Amino acid sequence: MGSMKLSESELQKAIIGRAQFLGWKVMHPLPGQTRDGWATTTQGDGKGYPDLTLVRERFIWVELKAEGKYLTVEQKLWRDWIIAAGGEWYCWKPLDWFNGTVDAVLGVKLEPIHLPLPEDSRWDRILLACDGDTEQAQRIYSVLERGEAPLA
């Protein structure tokens, strides 16, 4: 997992492992052999149901997609139904694993980075892009200062 590319299957395994390590209960429906071939068999309105259902102090539903893949009509309907009912729904791609989004939702506490706050317009732009989250802005600023990523 050192590269920035993960298949949907690799992403799923990584997220399930992290979630279980953090105390989440995770459910993922698996396909099975039917008389017509392999299918994820369900009863009722299962077509398009999210890949993962997680529960700890709250319920979350997650659809996983490889880069360049998009939600089907049925997946969008499940998303809309879950959100309309007050549920927490996400669509995660490999980038969400690498940029900390998954960890943030699952409740991983990242070590704060304490840097002196810079006094330049680049800092202001980064802070604005981070919606005022100074810890996130400090992380991004420190990466840019080390020259690990181009400044946009």
What features would you describe in this structure?
With 152 residues, the chain is α+β, with helices and mostly antiparallel strands. The protein folds into 2 domains: 99 residues, Trna Endonuclease, Chain: A, domain 1 (3-Layer(aba) Sandwich), CATH 3.40.1350.10; 41 residues, no CATH class. The chain has a 4-stranded mixed β-sheet, with helices on both faces. Strands 2-3 form a two-stranded antiparallel sheet. Helix 5 packs across helix 6. The longest helix is centred in the N-terminal third of the chain and has 14 residues.
Label this structure with key terms.
two-stranded antiparallel ribbon, 6 strands, alpha+beta, Trna Endonuclease, Chain: A, domain 1, 152 residues, single chain, four-stranded mixed beta sheet, 2 domains
In short:
Helix content is 38%, strand content 16%.
Helix/strand order, N-terminal first? HEEEEEHEHHHH
Total strands: the figure is 6
Shape: elongated
Helix fraction by DSSP (H/I, runs of at least 4)? 25-40%
What is the radius of gyration?
A: 19 Å
Return the CATH architecture of the largest domain.
Answer: 3-Layer(aba) Sandwich
Number of helices: 6
